[in-house]
Amino acid sequence: MPLEKMKAAWIPRFGGPEVLEIREIVRPVPSPDSVLVRVRAAGLNRADLLQRQGKYPPPPGYPAEMPGIEFAGEVAETGAQVRSWKKGQRVFGLTGGAAHAEYLAIHERLIAEIPPNLDWKQAAAVPEVFITAHDALWQQAELRRGETVLVNAVGSGVGIAAVQLARAMNARAFGVSRTPEKIEQAKQYGLADGIALRDNLDELAAAAERWTAGKGFDVFLDLVGGSYPSTVQTMMALKGRMIFIGTMAGSRYELDARYLMSKRLCLRGTVLRSRTLEEKIAVTQSFAREVLPVLANGTLRPVLDSVFSLGEIVKAHERLESNQTFGKVVIEI
Amino acid sequence: MPLEKMKAAWIPRFGGPEVLEIREIVRPVPSPDSVLVRVRAAGLNRADLLQRQGKYPPPPGYPAEMPGIEFAGEVAETGAQVRSWKKGQRVFGLTGGAAHAEYLAIHERLIAEIPPNLDWKQAAAVPEVFITAHDALWQQAELRRGETVLVNAVGSGVGIAAVQLARAMNARAFGVSRTPEKIEQAKQYGLADGIALRDNLDELAAAAERWTAGKGFDVFLDLVGGSYPSTVQTMMALKGRMIFIGTMAGSRYELDARYLMSKRLCLRGTVLRSRTLEEKIAVTQSFAREVLPVLANGTLRPVLDSVFSLGEIVKAHERLESNQTFGKVVIEI
Questions:
Q1: Fewer Cβ atoms within 10 A, N terminus or C terminus of chain A?
Q2: Which of A223, A227, A261 best probes binding to B when mutated, by most B CB atoms within 10 angstroms?
Q3: B280 and B262, same structural domain?
Q4: Residues A229 and A187 in one domain
Q5: CB A318 within 8 A of CB A17
Q6: Which residues in B lie closer than 8 A to residue A266 (C-beta atoms)?
């Protein structure tokens, strides 16, 4: 039996968006505990841009040439031991790479069923941002109802997902963005208030005081890094939690133990992509248990910035690289 | 009925050990939910030295003139609502201050019963170091059997308590001290291995590699601060926990999010003295539940550096201030 073929985005060499190609390559074959997914749409992520630039090698087992870390599609085949999925079911999830292709083989415990109210494009905008924000905010920060959260880069995909997850928990989310328009857009998704700041964070202190009535933030979701951690440590509430998941503005933090100790702060660095299979399964299953119901009833809404076809992969990369996006860039496949 | 008197250590003005006096003052009267303890022995702590220097005001409700944050003694009187204690019972615990006196009034839920195998001096050497190390290592760091712990200032009271608590958990404790002799002494309490370092921490990396077989430390209990956090962040294991409870060498930490994120580290600052009553009760009760049995069976051993009478309070302060101590300085009262 000849091996079947498929189209896939391909990185022949590291460089700008223009290096990207669409190639016809061999379709993967699912192992006994995996399913083969016919990908219908897939989100584009900063990790894909970095992989294309040669700055973010995918984990072992995923080819450096194939970007794509999230997908939505239908089950096309199931491995011999798979009992929980049937051909034709609509599924989505995260993967270590190779999702910007017509077919993807993935472990049966790393996918979740798409709620009926989401189409392919909307579903493709869910996994990366909602799984990341859910793991950071609900799981690691242990956000509780009535608490306050500060999110920077609040206009980013993860930022907006975090705002929605905070609101779904009856917590109040406050935000910072470099762009005033993104603050206003984020308010449509539940942001209680926000402030547009560029490199000077001085105005944040007065805003924090006002927003939290002097109590400080219970949770800080840091998507930016740089001077944020040292600035925000002074604005945290007693027993506050600072979660570090991004370092676009720099990774060296100057922290002061006097704040950490007197407020008994908890700081966590986190990253999803390098986790073990069993940890990724746990994250996926807790997402399915806790987040899918709130996605299905419309409380959480996927946010689409723009949609491109697989043939327009270069344009899609250019769009995300522009930093003008609000919500997800999605590729239809 | 005339108010009864008692002797107490007194700080008439801030300064060196020589300012300390023994005064005769009014004996406290227990509130309905408190007991009056006839203090028999009390540990001396760095907090007392700082309070004497005017650098560490006690929490509200405790006079600035009266040092003493831990004690062992017998119940002399019980408040009207107290049902859990009887006159004559041997108790110990932590307090916000005023423990270096013949009598101390304290909430009935903030004391625990002294195991029969400990005399007054030994019992007085327990609360501060074992409650602090237990809260940090077993509770906050969630130390598990088989894990590795790095403790700096391993010759300090809390350091040795941490070593013993790690060993009681079947974890392996490694230590740093400025003094080679303290490493050898700590080995008698279960330290797996240690290294004497002064300001240059370069040798620690090779030791960490050797001790943990390249895996890194699961827990770092930082009693020193300064350059330790930035040095040790590179030596932590995946999902390691760094607990900050001391800043003798400085409180400004330079941390790198790349370590924090790729290893998914959890950092916690902690301090006991400023906690709320209900938190202190929780800490005391969990100490009583988890630590008393291992104290009673001799697995954990209080470590006495030296014993002074209340009249020798100046000498006691001088001894602790010398930084030559190994284990606790205790005052008999």
A1: N
A2: A261
A3: no
A4: yes
A5: yes
A6: 266-268
Q: Does A267 touch chain B (CB under 8 A)?
A: yes
Percent of chain A having pLDDT more than 90?
90
Range of the domain at A299: 5-126+273-332
Question: Are residues B117 and B90 part of one domain?
Answer: yes
What digits encode the pLDDT tens for the residues A117-144?
999 999 999 999 999 999 999 999 999 9
The answer to whether B254 contacts chain A (CB < 8 Å) is yes
SS3 readout for chain A: CCCCEEEEEECCCCCCHHHCEEEEEECCCCCCCEEEEEEEEEEECHHHHHHHHCCCCCCCCCCCCCCCCEEEEEEEEECCCCCCCCCCCEEEEECCCCCCECEEEEEHHHEEECCCCCCHHHHHCCHHHHHHHHHHHHHHCCCCCCCEEEEECCCCHHHHHHHHHHHHCCCEEEEEECCHHHHHHHHCCCCCEEEECCCCCCHHHHHHHHHCCCCCEEEEEECCCCCHHHHHHHHEEEEEEEEECCCCCCCEEEEEHHHHHHCCCEEEECCCCCCCHHHHHHHHHHHHHHCHHHHHCCCCCCCEEEEEEHHHHHHHHHHHHCCCCCCEEEEEC
Tokens standing for B62? 């405790």
Between chains, do B264 and A269 touch, taking CB under 8 Å as contact?
A: yes
What CATH number should be reported for the domain holding residue B156? 3.40.50.720
| ipTM rounded to 2 decimals | 0.90
* Cβ <8 Å between B252 and A252: no
pTM of structure: 0.92
Which residues in chain A touch residue B269, judged by CB atoms under 8 angstroms apart? 257, 259-265
pLDDT digits (tens, 9 = 90+) for B50-72: 999 999 888 888 999 999 999 99
A109 and A240 housed in the same domain: no
CB within 8 Å: B267 and A263: no
- pLDDT of amino acid A275: 86
Q: How many domains does chain A have?
A: 2
